[in-house]
Write a structure and sequence with these properties.
7-stranded mixed β-sheet; Phenylalanyl-tRNA Synthetase, Chain B, domain 1; OB fold (Dihydrolipoamide Acetyltransferase, E2P); 21 helices; Phenylalanyl-tRNA Synthetase, Chain B, domain 3; 26% helix; alpha+beta
Length: 823
């Protein structure tokens, strides 16, 4: 929300220095993203006067002008000389005062003015139109100033365009602060100052111009889509530029002036927080002497060309405003249609002031990738109780700024009136919960500043009865009022105290220690901890290629904030892949992330879902950027396997196995580069390369290796201590063994057979080479070379003992594997 300081001054008393108000915003919980100076993007633009106007020698529509620009009347050598400007406008004469941008000037949109030649004639600046100065949409000619305007002074200062804009980040629970009136109320409560907000009033609303009820009929098909719809007609509108004061405020709020009708609707939205829409009444079809407005759900595949010129394909979960239940004329809460927009030929206006369901507006906005100032406000909830009041304000401004005639009355369809929440606030309870000595008088006065109606108790300890304003949907319980009081009193002023405890020694449980150990090991292995949303897109598992089997039913969110986060996640990998894509898009090529969190498996006949915890990680790129003296290889399956092995070793989990993953069961992993992780016969999780088709669905085109392990299984199998084994003191004997086996035999299978055949003397088996050659090894065969270490615990082995044990091992392994020793 962009808060104009000059505008705010007209509504409430504020500090002289805007930074003082910024500190109060931050203190009371409103984050400030930026503080800007309006007009700062206009430099070296001055008032001027036309001294000479001569037709261009090589053009039939341009003129060579001599401009008086005051102290800037010097040539390139510093000699006094009027400024020469080539101008194509037709609306000025000699003696007119105008606005000139000098060489080196900047204009809105980062436009820079340079010395140039127009058809062979030098031009040392530009005479500006209102549009080029960002004041309004008029570009029919250059801006003509009053005759008494000074010459050669800075245009921004003379025009009074300087203003400070505080750009505030408004949280979703505070829709009231998306308006200047709301921000004035908030500042009033923060500073304990009175507001002096004066809303325009209609001067002449008369049946002489017609009765709205006789001209317009409104039907709401579904009250869930639209809680209230008001319609008012204003006639004989004169389309033109907005008054200067109106254009200034629209600019300060972040919009561009278009014309007086559009600017009035934008201004009223910024003023009150209620989005409005103006239809050209003449473009709405008439039946039985009336225009019939119907609010309904869109039909599947229905089309609408919105004001931005784009054709939109609609779905039934979108609300539309229709012309007599036929063609849509607006996308409810988001944007109007091109078929009923205001243009230069508009005479009569149908003004809409309505409230649409925030969930439907949010989904519509995101599904169509169409966000507007209106949708931002509807998504956070618009106050339905004030629709009629805001319509009156807009009608008064149409009367004032557009010369319009206001027809009598309005059509107001209000199927479910909004009741203001009522609750009791106990002052002693406030003090007990906050731990702050907040006076009862402070509580009552600040709540009244926020717009609450407060009925005070008999004394400072008696409960107060509070009626919250309807534009504060976040105030429904006593604890909400407690939060407001503490926020305004100052959370930073609460004296810190330790919680009371008797005979209780603090410390972490074994489970907490092990969970922290998981994070420590993964960070030490080179991964960074992240936290992704618990909310998920319903299509996440499908995009990943992961089966829903064993993951319960989706836990759906009743009123999701955004369409692509409408259920609780059932796996953590999609969120981590989005984090990888985000980092890659922002230039981070080496990404190593992990997360410890919960997933949610719902059940059809249970009210609560299962919430198992998992630890998951994703890695792509290399461990580090290449250096002049060292190059790093790309991360692969074995890097992720090593991270998992580090984790299992640190938790002292024994009898760990990695078993090749079945591609049918693990469709999201790349066949041949994925494994199940088992320990003591129990499945812990998996590790492997994400399948390229799955990566493509998450906008990734680089290899990503990942793992996911059950925290519950890790904690159950983790041990505090391992059995002590003495360090070998006697030498071992190493022998290499190369076996030729079938291609489909895995290393794990061969090692198991070697260990089984080796007996007590075999202490270690290590694979060090795999060799394939159709001629030397054979078709469908491979050679696997192992280093075997023999050692006895109580004596030094003799060559005869080693030879006997090794020959026995070779015989058994050849028989069990069907292989042969490669010479």
């Amino acid at each position: 929300m962009r808060v104009s300081y000059e505008w705010l001054k007209t509504m409430v008393d504020v500090p002289e220095d805007p930074q003082d108000l910024v500190r109060e915003f931050v203190r009371t919980g409103t984050e400030v993203e930026a503080v800007e100076r309006v007009g700062a993007d206009i430099t070296r633009v001055v008032t001027s006067q036309v001294l000479e106007k001569v037709p261009h020698p090589d053009s039939d529509h341009m003129y060579v002008c001599k401009m008086d620009v005051g102290k800037y009347n010097v040539d390139e050598k510093g000699e006094p000389c009027p400024l020469q400007v080539v101008c194509g406008a037709q609306n000025f004469e000699v003696g007119d005062k105008t606005v000139t941008a000098l060489v080196g000037a900047t204009l809105p949109g980062d436009v820079k003015i340079k010395k140039g030649k127009l058809r062979g004639v030098d031009s040392f600046g530009m005479n500006c139109s209102s549009r080029e100065l960002g004041l309004d949409a008029d570009h029919s000619g250059i801006m003509i100033l009053p005759k008494d305007a000074p010459v050669g002074v800075d245009f921004v200062e003379w025009k009074g365009m300087s203003d400070t804009v505080i750009d505030c980040e408004i949280t979703p629970n505070r829709p009231d602060c998306l308006s200047m009136c709301g921000m004035a109320t908030e500042v009033s409560a923060m500073l304990d100052e009175d507001t002096h907000i004066e809303l325009p009033a209609i001067k002449n609303e008369s049946a002489e111009f017609g009765r709205t009820a006789d001209m317009v009929d409104v039907t709401i098909d579904d009250a869930e889509l639209c809680g209230r719809y008001t319609a008012r007609v204003v006639r004989n509108v004169k389309i033109g530029p907005s008054p200067e004061w109106l254009a200034k405020r629209v600019i300060a709020a972040g919009a561009r002036p278009i014309n007086n009708v559009v600017d009035v609707t934008n201004y009223v939205m910024f003023l009150t927080g209620q989005p409005l829409h103006a239809f050209d009444l003449g473009k709405v079809s008439e039946r039985d002497g009336k225009r019939h407005i119907v609010v309904r759900a869109a039909h599947e595949g229905e089309k609408l060309v919105t004001l931005d010129g784009q054709e939109r394909t609609l779905t039934p979960d979108m609300a539309v405003i229709t012309d007599d239940d036929n063609a849509p004329v607006a996308l409810a809460g988001v944007m109007g249609g091109l078929n009923s927009d205001i243009d230069d030929g508009t005479v009569d206006v149908l003004l809409e002031s309505a409230v649409f369901d925030k969930g439907h507006v949010s989904r519509t906005s995101r599904n169509l990738d169409l966000m507007s100032e209106a949708s931002i406000r509807y998504e956070r909830q618009v106050d339905g109780a004030r629709c009629a009041l805001v319509s009156d304000v807009a009608a008064a401004l149409f009367e004032q700024c557009c010369g319009a005639d206001v027809c009598e009355g309005m059509v107001d369809v209000y199927p479910a009136p909004v009741d203001a929440p009522q609750m009791d606030l106990r002052p002693d309870r406030v003090r007990a919960l906050t731990g702050a000595p907040i006076e009862t008088e402070f509580m009552a006065r600040r709540l009244e500043r926020l717009g609450c109606t407060v009925t005070r108790g008999a004394d400072e300890h008696a409960p107060m009865h509070v009626i919250a304003p309807t534009n504060r949907p976040d105030l429904t319980r006593e604890i909400d009022l407690v939060e407001e009081v503490l926020r305004l009193w100052g959370e930073g002023d609460v004296e810190p105290t330790l919680p009371a405890a008797k005979n209780h020694a603090g410390g972490l449980t074994v489970e907490q220690q092990r969970i922290r150990k998981i994070g420590q090991v993964l960070r030490a292995s080179g991964l960074s901890e992240t936290s992704t949303y618990n909310f998920a897109d319903p299509k996440d598992l499908e995009r990943l290629g992961m089966s829903e089997e064993g993951r319960g039913v989706p836990v759906k969110i009743m009123r999701p904030l955004v369409a692509d986060q409408s259920q609780m996640r059932r796996d953590m990998i999609p969120g981590l892949l989005r984090s990888v894509a985000y980092n890659l898009d922002h230039g981070v090529q080496n990404v190593h992330l992990y997360e410890v969190g919960r997933v949610f498996f719902g059940h059809e006949h249970k009210s609560q879902p299962d919430e198992p915890s998992y630890v998951a990680g994703v890695m792509c790129g290399a461990w580090n950027d290449d250096q002049w003296n060292r190059k790093y290889g790309k991360l692969d399956f074995f890097d992720a396997k090593g991270v998992v092995e580090n984790l299992l070793d640190a938790l002292r989990i024994t009898k760990v196995r990695f078993k090749a993953a079945d591609p049918k069961q693990y469709g999201w992993l790349q066949p041949g580069r994925a494994a199940e992780v088992l320990a003591q016969g129990e499945l812990l999780g998996w590790v492997g390369n994400i399948h390229p088709s799955s990566l493509k669905n998450f906008d990734l085109d680089v290899p990503v290796v990942a793992f996911e392990l059950s925290v519950k299984a890790l904690l159950r199998l983790a041990q505090r201590e391992l059995p002590y084994k003495e360090v070998p003191t006697l030498p071992g004997v190493s022998i290499d063994l190369a076996l030729v086996v079938d291609e489909d035999m895995t290393c794990e299978q061969v090692v198991q057979r070697i260990q089984s055949a080796g007996g007590k003397l075999l202490s270690d088996v290590r694979l060090f080479d795999v060799y394939r050659d159709k001629v030397r090894v054979g078709e469908g065969k491979k050679s696997m070379a192992f280093s075997l270490t023999y050692r006895a615990a109580d004596h030094t082995l003799t060559s005869e003992e080693v030879e006997k044990a090794h020959n026995k091992l070779v015989t058994k392994v050849m028989k069990s594997t069907g292989g042969e020793v490669r010479s």
